[in-house]
């Protein structure tokens, strides 16, 4: 499951018993050698789905980690790209991995639940981060994203079809979530990471309540399941173009933050 360059089981155990922030600080140097990193195939598929919707000027990679999604934005945005994460260790790796050339890239340490930006972006993406948010946090999270988008701006992220109960993947994810719930009931600080808590129906409803117009587009590279449903889709949430800066349920921040 892991490459020789990835973390050892002992290192993973230490990280899992830490807070989310400190755990990712510890994991950061080896994160790109784990299966937790979003695959290049998925990143490329989302980039191709977004390309016809551009051109985009300024993009934000929400919970950017080591910068895989930020790299996607540098191919889509003409003027600037910002990567935001609360782990200093992950941002250090992202900064070292940043591609040369292209739009200006800034790295900001911050919390996605309290974004330190004015409405300055026309594209926000996020890859693989939503398991770190409890369902009750989604309204505030989506409100924050809404508040930093310009009118007409888009919030995009991929979603994968959940595994069937008849498959090993279903029971693996169920077992992981169960272990994490027991761990968090017995140990502090908590480490929030649940694979099965981010339910598409609830997510679409909360995006609508936050003021987004939402559509789903199939990522055809991943094919379809036996019942004909797509294996992977991208959620495209659009801030209504008729709004003015500061409208909507999100709380606009006081200003922008430099890298």
TrEMBL record:
- Superkingdom in the source lineage: Bacteria
Where are the stretches annotated Disordered?
239-259
Gene3D superfamilies (alphabetical): Vaccinia Virus protein VP39
Give residue ranges for domain Methyltransferase: 60-153
One Gene Ontology term from the biological process aspect of the record: methylation
CDD domains assigned: AdoMet_MTases
Enumerate the GO terms in the molecular function aspect.
Answer: methyltransferase activity
Q: Which PANTHER family match?
A: METHYLTRANSFERASE, N6-ADENOSINE-METHYLTRANSFERASE TMT1A
Does the keyword ATP-binding feature in the UniProt annotation?
no
**InterPro entries, A to Z:** Methyltransf_25, Methyltransf_Superfamily, SAM-dependent_MTases_sf
* Statement: the UniProt record of this protein carries the keyword Transferase: yes
**Keywords, A to Z?**
Methyltransferase, Transferase
Could you read off the lineage of the organism from its UniProt record?
A: Bacteria, Bacillati, Actinomycetota, Actinomycetes, Kitasatosporales
Return the protein name.
Answer: Methyltransferase
Q: Which organism is it from?
A: Streptomyces collinus (strain DSM 40733 / Tue 365)
């Amino acid at each position: 499951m892991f490459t020789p360059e990835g973390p050892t089981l002992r290192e993973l155990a230490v990280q899992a018993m830490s807070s989310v922030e400190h755990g990712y600080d510890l994991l950061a140097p080896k994160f790109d050698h784990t299966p937790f990193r979003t695959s290049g195939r998925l990143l490329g598929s989302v980039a191709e789905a977004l390309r016809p919707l551009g051109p985009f000027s300024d993009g934000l990679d929400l919970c950017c980690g080591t910068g895989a999604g930020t790299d996607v934005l540098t191919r889509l945005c003409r003027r600037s790209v910002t990567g935001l994460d609360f782990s200093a260790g992950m941002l250090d790796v992202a900064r070292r991995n940043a591609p040369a050339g292209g739009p200006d890239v800034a790295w900001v340490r911050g919390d996605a639940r309290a974004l330190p930006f004015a409405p300055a972006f026309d594209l926000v993406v996020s890859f693989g981060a939503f398991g770190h948010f409890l369902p009750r946090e989604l309204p505030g999270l989506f409100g924050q994203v809404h508040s930093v988008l310009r009118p007409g701006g888009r919030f995009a992220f991929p979603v994968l079809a959940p595994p069937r109960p008849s498959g090993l993947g279903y029971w693996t994810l169920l077992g992981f979530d169960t272990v994490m719930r027991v761990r968090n009931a017995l140990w502090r600080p908590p480490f929030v990471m649940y694979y099965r808590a981010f339910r598409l129906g609830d997510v679409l409803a909360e995006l609508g309540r936050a003021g987004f117009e939402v559509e789903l587009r199939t990522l055809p590279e991943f094919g379809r399941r036996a019942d004909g449903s797509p294996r992977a889709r991208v959620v495209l949430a659009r801030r209504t173009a008729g709004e003015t800066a500061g409208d909507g349920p999100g709380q606009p921040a006081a200003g922008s933050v430099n890298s």
